[in-house]
Design brief:
The chain has 129 residues and is mostly helical. Helix content is 53%, strand content 8%. The longest helix has 17 residues, at 112-128. The chain is globular, with a radius of gyration of 15 Å.
């Protein structure tokens, strides 16, 4: 019937020695879509693999993916974590590929193969810059 593979339960983001679990539950998706007034899939340009959401949108996605697993986290905390991530050598493209797309995979929006295709397209774009 095919090969069965283990699905990752969470995406993990480690900043300044602290690891945060990230995954969107259905209630998080509903709240996120109401807030952004868009479908979560509309936030990605799945067709070309080239669309990168704004930083505001990416941080909002991460906040909603984190809030159920990290008690008391605030959106401003996520911004502070992102600042630290950048200070430690991260970039917005890396954040999108390694965190946001992984959230989409573990939350059931994208297959790992789709995320890989999008990641490769972004890496090609990055190499041309």
């Amino acid at each position: 019937m095919g090969e069965v593979t283990q699905k990752k339960a969470f995406c993990e983001w480690t900043v300044d020695g602290q690891t945060y679990r990230l995954k969107l539950k259905t209630s998080d998706v509903v709240a996120l879509e109401q807030r952004l007034k868009k479908s979560c899939l509309d936030l990605l340009d799945v067709q070309s693999g080239m669309g990168v959401p704004s930083l505001t949108t990416m941080l909002t996605i991460v906040y909603y993916a984190m809030k159920s697993w990290q008690h008391g986290i605030k959106e401003t905390d996520v911004m502070t974590l992102f600042d630290k991530y950048i200070e430690d050598g991260g970039s917005q493209i890396d954040f999108y590929v390694n965190i946001v797309l992984e959230i989409y995979v573990v939350s059931g929006f994208l297959s790992a193969k789709m995320a890989q295709t999008m990641s490769e397209a972004l890496q090609k774009m990055r190499a041309q810059i």
